[in-house]
Amino acid sequence: MLNVEQLNQYYGSSHTLRGVSLDLQKGECLALLGRNGVGKTTLLKCLMGVLPVAGGHVKLNDRDITRLKPHERAALGIAYVPQGREIFARLTVEENLLMGMAVKPGRQASKIRGEVFELFPVLKEMLHRRGGDLSGGQQQQLAIARALLADPKLIILDEPTEGIQPSIIKDIGRVIRLLRERGDMAILLCEQYFDFAHELADKFLVLSRGEVVAAGTQAEMSGEDIKRHLAV
Ligand SMILES: Nc1ncnc2c1ncn2[C@@H]1O[C@H](COP(=O)(O)OP(=O)(O)OP(=O)(O)O)[C@@H](O)[C@H]1O
After folding, report:
1. pLDDT higher than threshold 90 for residue 11
2. ipTM of this model?
3. What global pTM score does this model have?
């Protein structure tokens, strides 16, 4: 599904991503871990095409998408839930959700699938509220729901638990688990909250100073192994 080969990225003279490679299949959840400032968000932005790369390749289902623009990647089935959520504060919940459907060419952006309200019932109650009036946790749920309405093949989540109350973290975890069990998309989950990521992911990739310092499956890496790499 997603293959990343030897990705390199610079901010000016600062070499932020150093030969990062990864592989993610349909039905899998990969947790991207690492301390603050190691390059996680930068990697996700490069995968979405928000930032250009200096070298390497990004492939989606064997198609090289390294030079495609973000909206072209979205149309091919990559959905991105950025850190900080970036919902439209002045638009209603319903309008925000309709935005998620607009990326599909030819799709009539008129009817929101009931499935998202099953996943996130609170959004149905809040349909006519402005996005900016929702709590942080509700905004995060809205951002994930909006991404799902694009019918992604790959969903990229950047720290979905950041600044969110425990009960909503549980709800978000339940939805990610359900999506994983459904098996029809790949999930790339960037997280600082280790226990959350560890419960959900099939495999792990740990970054340190822009480099992959550890990678493996649940069976190959214990929680202690991963934590040791995170402490370096
Ligand atoms: N626009 C930018 N211009 C220059 N340097 C940047 C820019 N954005 C990030 N950086 C630097 O690049 C490095 C990687 O940042 P990045 O945000 O990718 O890290 P991160 O692992 O996602 O951290 P966090 O967990 O804090 O979000 C950091 O040293 C950061 O200061």
Report:
1. yes
2. 0.94
3. 0.93
Atom of ligand 1 nearest to the CA of 45: 18
Instruction: Tell how far the Cα of 92 is from the centroid of ligand 1, in angstroms.
Output: 31
Ligand 1 atom 6: residue of nearest CA: 11
Position 221 confidence tier, pLDDT thresholds 50, 70, 90: confident
Domain chopping of the chain, boundaries = 2-83+138-144+151-231
The arithmetic mean of pLDDT across residues 32-54, rounded, is 95
Q: 59 CA distance to ligand 1 centroid (A)?
A: 23
CATH superfamily ID and name for 2-83+138-144+151-231: P-loop containing nucleotide triphosphate hydrolases (3.40.50.300)
CB of 9 shorter than 6 A to ligand 1 = no
Residue nearest to ligand 1 atom 16, measured at CA? 39
Which atom of ligand 1 lies closest to the CA of 44? Answer: 18
3-state SS, one letter per residue, for the chain: CEEEEEEEEEECCEEEEEEEEEEECCCCEEEEECCCCCCHHHHHHHHHCCCCCCEEEEEECCEECCCCCHHHHHHHCEEEECCCCCCCCCCEHHHHHHHHHCCCCCCCCCCCCCHHHHHCHHHHHCCCCEHHHCCHHHHHHHHHHHHHCCCCCEEEEECCCCCCCHHHHHHHHHHHHHHHHHCCCEEEEECCCHHHHHHHCCEEEEEECCEEEEEEECCCCCHHHHHHHHHC
Question: Ligand 1 within 6 A of 160 CB?
Answer: no
**pLDDT level of residue 107 (50, 70, 90 thresholds):** low
